[in-house]
User: Fold this.
Amino acid sequence: MPVADSTRIEASYPDALALMRDLRAMGETNVLRGRLRRPTARRVIARAAALYADRFPAPGGRVAATFEVVFLTGWAPAEGQPRPLRPGSATARLADALDATERGAGEKAGR
Assistant:
């Protein structure tokens, strides 16, 4: 049975170059086969860092970054473990359990 979950982590860095170094250390580099094989020009990196700082400012002259971490897990049910119910067989509404207002499909929140 597959299970997926995610969490968002908000961070700040002294500058965009520090963020780029962290991304590289995480292995978040360009692995596309058709990528450029020559190093990116310093002026391009400097311009990208300036644009990032303008668009994602954080307090104290830092830059903000948000990471979404996705967890994918698969497990096999045990003998005595409860089995999932058939879709549509619920006897209680999730909106009631969450004390939330139920909205129809396509209806925007806040209206």
